[in-house]
């Protein structure tokens, strides 16, 4: 029997509740939260994800990708992009980890992306900013879902710096997008793990540094 509208609304978890579960997690429990992003809430079993890479001796570091033409230097330190532009809400979360699953604290996670019309702010810093990972290696952005444009599927741009000269530049993708396979830069190793909440999507990607 199909669920009623009220039953469906209760069946979809509230984003705030899911985030509380994630904030209670730590990198030492990474394998236990790998399939369901929010094991304290969803009681996920400790098995390895097939989409978003986990850390471990058999896993490669996160794949790099092109920076693209729209990067702006010296973005502001901020994690909330919601005031910058209207759009479908997305909370982007994850860990920055070493290959042996140790959290990387103080890593700079620099995020920028297009708006819901597929346009970038190239004069200012709308939908652009960075934050540093906390002691557990976590990062957290409140933002929106970018639109496709030209030949590009929806994506986020990210740069990671870890206190030395090495910089990881990459792009993150949404699963199930029709344009993914037609995008010449798309890489399935860079798919985010996206879950629906009643008040917006939650996307997770764990960065594994070399």
TrEMBL record:
Span of domain Intradiol ring-cleavage dioxygenases: 67-184
Biased composition (Basic and acidic residues): 75-84
Record key words, sorted: Dioxygenase, Membrane, Oxidoreductase, Transmembrane, Transmembrane helix
Transmembrane segments: 21-42
A Pfam family the protein falls into: Dioxygenase_C
Region ranges (Disordered): 50-84
Alphabetical list of PANTHER family matching this protein: DIOXYGENASE, DIOXYGENASE, PUTATIVE (AFU_ORTHOLOGUE AFUA_2G02910)-RELATED
UniProt record similarity statement: Belongs to the intradiol ring-cleavage dioxygenase family.
Protein name: Intradiol ring-cleavage dioxygenases domain-containing protein
């Amino acid at each position: 029997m199909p669920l009623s509208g009220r039953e469906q609304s209760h069946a979809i978890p509230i984003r705030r509740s899911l985030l509380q579960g994630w904030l209670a997690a730590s990198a030492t429990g990474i394998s236990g939260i790998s399939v369901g992003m929010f094991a304290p809430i969803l009681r996920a079993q400790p098995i390895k994800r097939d989409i978003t890479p986990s850390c471990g001796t058999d896993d490669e570091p996160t794949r790099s990708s092109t920076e693209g033409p729209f990067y702006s230097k010296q973005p502001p330190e901020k994690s909330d992009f919601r005031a910058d532009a209207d759009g479908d809400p997305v909370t982007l979360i994850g860990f920055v980890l070493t290959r042996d699953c140790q959290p990387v604290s103080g890593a700079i996670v620099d995020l920028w992306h297009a708006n819901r019309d597929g346009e970038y702010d190239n004069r200012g810093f709308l939908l652009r900013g960075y934050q540093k990972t906390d002691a557990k290696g976590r990062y957290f952005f409140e933002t929106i879902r970018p639109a496709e444009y030209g030949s590009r599927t929806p994506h986020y741009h990210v740069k990671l710096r870890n206190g030395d000269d090495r910089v990881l530049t990459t792009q993150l993708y949404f699963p199930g997008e029709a344009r993914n396979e037609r995008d010449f830069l798309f890489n399935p190793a860079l798919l985010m793990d996206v879950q629906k909440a009643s008040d917006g999507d939650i996307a997770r990607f764990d960065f594994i540094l070399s």
